[in-house]
Amino acid sequence: MAKALSWSGRIRGVDIAALAGGFLCIFALAACEEPPLDPRAALIAKGREIFFNETFAGNGRTCGTCHRAEENFTLSPAFIATLPPDDPLFVAETNPELATLENPVLLRRFGLILENLDGFDDLENVFTQRGIPHTLALPTSVDSAQGPRTGWSGDGAPGDGSLRSFATGAVIQHFPKTLNRVPDVDFRLPSDDELDALEAFQLSLGRQDDLTLPMPLKDVVAARGQAIFLDNALGKCNACHFNAGANGNPAIFGADAGNLNFNTGVEDLPDQPADLTGERVPPDDGLGTPGDGTFNTPPAVEAADTGPFFHNNSVETIEGAVAFYNGDAFNNSPAGQLITGATGSGINLDATQTEEVAAFLRAINALENIRGSVALLEESAAQKHGPARATLALAGAETDDAIAVLAGAELSLEAVAHLRQARRLIDKAARSWFFRKRLTREAIEQQQMARAEIVEES
Amino acid sequence: MEPRSIGFAVLAALLWSAPAHAQKATEQFIPIGQSPGLSGEYTYLGAIEAADIVARSITAGGRSVQVTERTRIWLDRSGAKQPNLVGSFDDLRAGHRVEIKYEDEARRERADWIKVQADQDQ
């Protein structure tokens, strides 16, 4: 050993200075913390933590109980069926104090959540059953000339009615330990700092801007669907879903109209699935108390992978959702009658046209999935292994959605092949200690190739 | 497109009349002074100075405020760890601490909702 180690500074030919330097580097790297987040990113990170983990001293639910990241920040009956019996979503089944907080039959079968939008005086008779709206693209869908519109009827928040205040109402409605709903007994109210963070996080989810249509779609069926969507004499969709978003067409409703409420007659649909169960489903009167029958417009871009559709989850497929506008319920509704008055006719698409509009919605949904997945993959590449695996899982879920919405109508099958390959690479990246970044890059390339199969690159 | 544009303009005027409302139902359970985005900025917090049951108005902060059919009145019992309840005009008495949200913040003529601290007579 003495021979090996000498004051000459070498151990069996290894330079001690270099070795020490190497160790120093390793120690320095180990001690080195993540670079500090900018204030906005820190607020979003805090909001994410609260959204998924904070129960507000209530019944165990968090915001993420109903707005699951891997489920596009909503819940479908199929996903609900995979949850364990002790999931906090099912507190009405496991906690006798909360037996009437939800209707378990309607929650499990149709993903419907009980809401006391018209007051808490008569819990047995005055309530509505609504689907869970996703929280994607909120920067594009909440503002209106008349103030913020949150929730299905646009009036989901107490206080000033803003997205920031929405969480306070959600805690009171969905998180209580008992139906007495006493603050600091049955829950605690979010603090101002928590509301700020939750708002920042929710605003960070999904699209931050509206699309600009038309897009140069390659699939002829989706392209025809886009043309129908934009045609004010045929599909008439773009009037209320401007650029397939959630806002009124500014050329019609004014530059600052933003998100609008309409009575489209969904409540008048015959044979509504929830009604067929025999469970009590009171009519939903929409905005206000008493309600005026209107509901606000959700973005169409995210529609195809966030069904079931409409405020009461009454329609299962995107094709069915488009077909709704051809039926009597819509065309006889106040909104349908105004469309008829304004354009000389209602909406009367044939089956081919209905499927074409749905194909268009599937295509733009898949493009949004790809955008989201690539962003997540890029984010994962900058993370350590543990957080990266979680981010890769979300990228995988986005990719699964893209595959499902395209393959569901046999659209852009070359894109589907690239997406399937991307999915395999994401799985490999999540398992790999040494090649994660390379595999992630390859997954991104496959996503980009998939995108190029759907839309002409500019 | 021109006739349709005119038609759509009419449509816009007809559809664009309903004002947005905050969801007032859960407001019932928010204690006085804690309404997010409102309390301390856009509401009156203080005592009722007078109540006129005939005129269905109260005086608070030196102003007369109309209590209409649409005005929601809630009894805030959160201080006593009891559930908040729906109240009535009879609960609006001189000296009682209230929070008032006005229908129109600038005019402050009619109350949108009033929360009354309910444990003051005990």
How do the strands and helices of this protein lay out in sequence?
The complex is a heterodimer of chains A (458) and B (122).
Chain A: E1 10-11, E2 14-15, H1 16-31, H2 39-53, H3 63-66, H4 77-80, H5 91-94, H6 104-110, E3 113-115, E4 128-130, H7 163-174, H8 192-203, H9 220-230, H10 250-253, E5 261-262, H11 273-276, E6 295-296, H12 318-324, H13 328-331, H14 334-343, H15 351-381, H16 385-407, H17 413-431, H18 436-454
Antiparallel strand pairs in A: 1-2, 3-4, 5-6
Helix pairs in contact in A: 2-8, 7-8, 9-15, 12-15, 15-16, 15-18, 16-17, 17-18
Chain B: H1 2-15, E1 43-52, E2 57-60, E3 63-66, E4 72-76, E5 85-86, E6 97-102, E7 111-117
Parallel strand pairs in B: 4-7
Antiparallel strand pairs in B: 1-2, 1-6, 2-3, 4-5, 6-7
List keywords for this structure.
heterodimer, A: 458 residues, mainly alpha, two-stranded antiparallel sheet, two-stranded antiparallel ribbon, 18 helices, disordered N terminus, B: 122 residues, mainly beta, 7-stranded mixed beta sheet, 1 helix, globular
